[in-house]
């Protein structure tokens, strides 16, 4: 049943090592539990905060992974990145964390039950990225989310699942009241297509979100100033529309909370990095017959795959050093 348990333990141990490496700059906390499995087991969910109190309260940046339990490549990319930026002797060391100019709020495994059971969904059979309750305008049939059965993929669930609530609460507590800040939050996924996509809201409609102009500016900064040319940037609905995207909900909720505050000068900017792993099918054609193979890169280029994202993630989190006025 829990074929992924060893792997989950390995990631958690590595997270602990990263927390130790960061020393005083790290706060590792258990922030809740997963949905209970049919055997009655609940998995702890952890957050790791990196930075000083000032960095975390004034310039927080978020990174999350493994909302889908099969997409463990995102966890590995994230853990590799964290080591890269906290190790004092690393070429990627981020001094801004120590100086209080930036804080990282990380939930490396949002869906530990899915990782342990090797399922996309949580232990209740719910696809967390279909779980927000938002109805899409023209969703893809079935893939866009379904309410028929938890035994079928893409089940939307009834009400927010524990994992979704924990993610929402963390966003609310760490980002929603911060003033005069640019707060990018990146959620790591894998599996869709052959290129790496960086998506911003919305997933539920092709209507542009209010911050489209700013998102486009961030994309051209990452592309032109930082040289991350092989990513494809755009609203998620350009690729497909779905019901229940959690980031749609959080993004709209943030806007609702501040709709009465004229001149509110902070920006909460969720984005999704969808690591395109289908290109591996050319190298390992049998993968297409394996249930989870298409969500993971080929073994021999795994190390390259993981380290390839360090620079991108580093430039991404450094966007949190800027202020809204820098992007006008
Ligand atoms: Zn995913």
UniProtKB/TrEMBL annotation:
A GO CC term attached to the entry: extracellular space
Domain of life: Bacteria
Cofactor field: Zn(2+)
UniProt keyword terms in alphabetical order: Carboxypeptidase, Hydrolase, Metalloprotease, Protease, Zinc
Pfam family name, one: Peptidase_M14
GO molecular function terms noted in the UniProt entry: metallocarboxypeptidase activity; zinc ion binding
SUPFAM superfamilies in alphabetical order: Zn-dependent exopeptidases
GO terms classed as biological process: proteolysis
Domain Peptidase M14, chain residue ranges per copy: 44-269
Family: Belongs to the peptidase M14 family.
Protein's recorded name: Carboxypeptidase
Organism encoding this protein: Leptospira fletcheri
């Amino acid at each position: 049943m829990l074929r992924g348990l060893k792997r989950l333990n390995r990631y958690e141990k590595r997270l602990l090592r990263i927390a130790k490496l960061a020393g005083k700059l790290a706060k590792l906390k258990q922030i809740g539990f997963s949905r209970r499995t049919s055997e009655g087991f609940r998995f702890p969910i952890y957050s790791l905060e990196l930075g000083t109190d000032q960095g975390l309260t004034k310039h927080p940046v978020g990174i999350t992974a493994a909302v889908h339990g099969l997409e463990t490549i995102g966890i590995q990319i994230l853990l590799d990145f964290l080591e890269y930026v906290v190790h004092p002797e690393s070429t990627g060391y981020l001094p801004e964390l120590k100086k209080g100019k930036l804080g990282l709020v990380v939930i490396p495994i949002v869906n530990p039950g899915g990782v342990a059971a090797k399922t996309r969904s949580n232990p209740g059979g719910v696809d967390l990225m279909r779980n927000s309750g938002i109805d899409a305008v023209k969703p893809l049939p079935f893939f866009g989310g379904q309410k028929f059965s938890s035994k079928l993929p893409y089940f939307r669930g009834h009400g927010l699942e524990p994992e979704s609530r924990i993610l929402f609460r963390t966003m609310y507590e760490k980002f929603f009241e911060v003033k005069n800040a640019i707060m990018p939050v990146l959620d790591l996924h894998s599996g869709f297509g052959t290129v790496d996509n960086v998506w911003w809201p919305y997933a539920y409609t092709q209507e542009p979100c209010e911050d489209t102009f700013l998102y486009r500016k961030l994309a051209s900064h990452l592309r032109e100033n930082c040289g991350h040319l092989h990513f494809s940037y755009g609203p998620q609905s350009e690729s497909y529309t779905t019901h229940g995207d959690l980031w749609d909900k959080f993004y709209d909720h943030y806007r609702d909370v501040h709709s009465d505050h004229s001149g509110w000068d902070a920006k909460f900017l969720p984005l999704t990095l969808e690591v395109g792993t289908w290109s591996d099918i050319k190298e390992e054609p049998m993968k297409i017959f394996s249930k989870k193979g298409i969500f993971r890169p080929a073994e021999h280029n795994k190390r390259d795959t993981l380290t390839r994202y360090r620079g991108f993630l580093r430039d991404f989190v450094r966007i949190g050093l800027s202020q809204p006025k820098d992007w006008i």
